[in-house]
Amino acid sequence: MYPVEMLDSMKKVETTRKERIGFEPKRMTEEEKKNLLMQYHPDFNDKGFTELKVGPNKGDKVPIELAELLQANSRIKDVDIDLTKIGYDVDVLIIGGGGAGASAAIEAQENGANVMIVTKLRMGDANTMMAEGGIQAADKENDSPMIHYLDALGGGHFANKPELLYKLVTEGPDAIKWLEDLGVMFDKAPDGTMITTHGGGTSRKRLHAARDYTGAEIMRVLRDEVINRNIPIIDFTAAIELILDDGGKAAGAVLMNMETGEFLVARAKTVIIATGGAGRLHYQGFPTSNHYGATADGLIFGYRAGAKLIYPDTLQYHPTGAAFPEQIYGALVTEKVRSLGAMLVNVDGEAFVHPLETRDVVSAAIIRECKARGKGIKTSEGHCVWLDTPMIEILNGEGTIEKRIPAMLRMFMKYDIDIRKVPILVYPTLHYQNGGLEINSDCLTGVDNLYVAGEASGGVHGRNRLMGNSLLDVIVFGRIAGRNAAEKSKNVKIGKLTLEHVKKFAKEMEQAGISSDMVSPKLLPSYARKS
Amino acid sequence: MEEMVNVYIMGKKYTVPANLTIMKAMEYAGYQLIRGCGCRSGFCGACATIYRVKGDRELKVCLACQTKVENEMYIAMLPFFPLVKQVYDINKIKPDEQIMMQLYPEIYSCIGCNSCTKSCTQGLNVMRYIAYAQRGEYEKCAEESFDCVMCGVCSARCPAGISHPQVALLARRLAGKYLIPQFQQLAKRVKEIKEGKFEESMKELMKKSTDELRELYNKREIEI
Ligand SMILES: Cc1cc2nc3c(=O)[nH]c(=O)nc-3n(C[C@H](O)[C@H](O)[C@H](O)COP(=O)(O)OP(=O)(O)OC[C@H]3O[C@@H](n4cnc5c(N)ncnc54)[C@H](O)[C@@H]3O)c2cc1C
Ligand code: FES
Questions:
Q1: Among A318, A431, A479, A501, which one carries the catalytic annotation?
Q2: Which helix (H) or strand (E) holds B168?
């Protein structure tokens, strides 16, 4: 439970709760949002960014922590990798065992390819497993792909690549159908109608969920399906560099056994990068909601091989990371809590933002409340605000929390905080990489035979992703990548394997006067305390 | 001063801050985790851990990322457990009683000791969902087992050798695919899209200038 210092403020929240029920905080005008973001969103904090000095995005602004890794030494810098010793030889190599990797694998096999997944931790130890809130798709009668398109475009600040967004919204319903046919159990009414809610920035209730275990339910079904299909999964094995052939085409990867450090060569006709996000790089010192392996590896070796980044300077800070108790600092409190009616409230019990503005706006509003207005609640890690969870059952009836967000109930209950009775404390947490490796609508990068899908790719969400569009992205584009990579592999003749591009990149770094004492990709964050 | 406690990681003693989770305590002690750490948030089941507090006879289990250290706690991680996973074609099997009999016959050897339920890190009634599976009541089994993170602790404690999480997963897939009614409107929408019903409107929308799109966005009607 909460220490006494916080209880005074909690009383105020309780006092104002009655008036807040049935009252909808004003939505901001476009102008107001713009000013708020410019002043308080971390993406606009110049101190967090630097310009790249080498590679396809030379001159572009990226987070400092990412720049350090993009411009660090390869893990095989001084290692002689024997490229004639082929450890694995497949049609399609999939790097990353999350939702995008699994969807790609199933579809690639369905299209006749011999496919293999390598993944750094266990299959399914991934951001996909953690998605709580839900997955969008325009399948309801009052909804359409056009409305979905417009919502995502506005949320993405009109920077989404139209051909990608078109795919997302028009193939969305089919993706949900595919999951339903695989046996994913969505929340449904007794007649089979999907129970859908709003997410921040949606104009229709199009968020499908499986309690607040949406990602877990999808991931465990996909993993099960991959195993049922006898698709080989090489776990605890990370890709550390791509291998090209002498024609400059992607032709495999150098792998590293995470436990023994052994290097292995995987040769493939086509390669799909599905390595996910970067939360564990802790940009600007933020906590993160991401899984342990979210260290932007795919961006690093993709970039070295010549693939371009798009919007690498746009990160999503989820407005509601847990801020108390400190054991779960940074862990996600799903947006569904707000979809179900909980309001954000400051130290004085005042609602200060519409809870369903887009995430960037809500995050910036929380940061403003704490940093500029002095209306945050103090904790050992800084300041934070209340999320008034008891409103949910007042609005939706008793039992709603246990039924719809059991993971949240469980997470806080471990610390004697019953979210049905008392509000919780939240602060923005580093959540999602909006940008990534640039792809076209076939998931192909500028490097031949190199595909990317899921959070490692960029463009579909513009500069800000809406909740529920990322799970949809991994399914839709994972499947597209799998199909295309399989199709393409049928006509590929692999040339002589080479790692020259890695050497070339190192030389460019040298010429640009960069010397680094770091190696990349990072693979895992280092949390071990050094004495 | 921070309150500190003594813990024994694989039997070796370390002094760590009292407010840490077991996972963070291991890192505080200097471990760079590779296995036994996935989501760090209680969703993936990678961090199953057994522990005993000195003086207590009972061996307890938990998720290391979700559990606070206690003084005099002996900790051992269980980063891998060989669950039995049977392979099947979801499109060919049927949601009848035979299928469990065929794939996971060991569930019928359950002796009702309830060790699984007692050990569940998610607080689920594991023995009950296995009973539902035995009776072919897959929807109930699915409902009851839904929050399972497949950490495998229940199976590690089972004298009958049941792989509970895999049984539950099969039940859920059967329920999701065959027993719970499909969403009719979804199939309809997929068909409409395939038939090109929205093609023209999509094209028209995509042709618009950013200013026009902005205008449409700002004026769009929001469902209540
Ligand atoms: C807590 C949380 C909640 C979320 N909630 C939602 C939600 O409600 N709705 C929504 O739409 N989205 C949500 N998201 C976002 C969404 O879950 C992710 O963006 C999406 O699942 C990413 O899928 P992916 O397959 O691209 O990456 P991941 O699922 O992260 O998979 C990437 C895989 O690649 C592996 N890998 C990484 N590097 C290497 C390497 N070098 N070699 C081999 N393997 C490697 C990783 O270990 C991992 O297994 C949430 C994210 C988080 C973290
Ligand atoms: S690390 Fe995923 S449940 Fe603990």
A1: A318
A2: helix B164-174
